[in-house]
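sorry for the late reply, my laptop died twice this morning and i had to redo everyting from scratch. anyway the thing you sent over, i finally got around to it. pasting the sequence first so we're on the same page, its 515 residues, then the predicted structure underneath. double check i copied it right bc i was rushing
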Amino acid sequence: MKTLTLDLEEYSESESKIFDLCIIGSGPAGLSLASKFIGTNINVAILESGITGLSKRHDQLNEAQSIGEREIDSMNSRSRRYGGAMQLWAGTSAPFSEIELLDRKEIGISGWPVTWEELVPFYKEAAELLDVSWNLFFRPYQEFKTQMSDAFPNLIGKTLRFNNYFQAKNIDLTMSLDKKFSKASNISIFTNATVVDFEFEQGKLTQAITKTINGRKVKLSAKYFVLCNGALEATRLLLTSKLFVNNLPNHLGKNFMSHPSFTDLAYVHFKRNERKWVNKTKLHTKVDFELNFAEQNLKKVLRHNIHMSPSYEKNQNLVLESSRINKEFNKFDANKPQFNSLLLRLWDIFCRVLGKRAWTNTWNVSIGIEQEPIETRSLSLSDERDELGINKLKLDGGEISQLEKRTISAALSGLDKALRENNVGELVLSDNYLSGSYLSRQDAINHHIGTIKMGSSCTDGVVDNNLKVFEYDNLYVCSSAVFPTSSNANPTFTIVALSLRLGNMLKKALQNIIN
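ok and here's the structure:
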């Protein structure tokens, strides 16, 4: 069995060969793509900038300058090591919906040049690779034991729909594919191999120019190249390379998106206290709500997630009394008798032992939203350079747009309407929301999406519907950078699906060449 990875410092150029496929990046996209070639006669090189463990020097290559109103964390949101983002990913999985792949003319957002029907087979394959059940995404949320389904079993109706999320069991493909890669003589994995540029001729790439952290330069030749190194790094590589010196694509570096999440926007006050406990939150299953698609179309808003969680106050009555909602809370509970905090704590501990949490009549409301593509939210090059002499990025996350604010407002109104229609309780808006303070909070999620848009032509995208860069015949990009829209779902599941789809296509193309 061969050694799984090889540090590029130890690679002998005298043994160099022309690979059939060069995959740049070993995160979810790169390893999913490589898995399609295990045991074939197609020689694959995987180039990972980092090493197999943590390395401060390699991580410092992630440094970038955040210049927008919304701060983008380029360091803690990325992992420059073998496995990439899988070393940070919690496994939260959900497919994009059919509606967001279509043109949403009511809000001025174009769809994807890929149909839902085209993606479904690869979503199913991704579910198998990551070990998450595809059918569960479409099951009624009441069938799952979560806090949300337990506390709000009848909230779905004329206004709201549900979103199911599940944790993949194979979160880290470096582990689940380890033995297969070790036995695959056709797959070579190089670490400490940062791609800094390319050589090309007549519309085709011929070599990837790589550097080790100590500055050793190595050139690797291949027939096809795929950038799987994440939305920030793939964009930086295209911007700094010689590939587009005289013809920078219109959409390269533009339309940066994430998934902003806003907490303490409001709280739900239940009308009746009929419960003693509620199911404890578990990572493997999550349920959120949003306006149904008819309401989204009517209100002209983006996709979103409405999440509610019980509020606990440590020393009085298991209900949070924060400065933001204190007045409204007291209005409802001024006459409620106060109980001994020790007894309440003991009761909560007892509930935890049973896998529950003590019931509270007050639940906090948080909302996460997809972002609209806006050109001024962008990535560009800084004059500052990293240790390898490559320009660092400037990240402009912009500010929350009017459409995004309207989405949050509509979601809160829809939730209030559903609570009243189902006689559950009512919604009280927080000072945090009413004052607009929530807008100044920085993005805690930091998913990096967009900036190498997938389009139907070079006028509306950087890559085509097969993820090929329009200007080059053998260069592809596979990451969330190609997403035309950001959705409200974690991007990893869709990244893996697109990687498997691309793998199928490239395998056929290379087998035709080899055979």
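Residues 122 and 497 are 5 Å apart (CA to CA).
thats about all i looked at so far, will dig more tmrw
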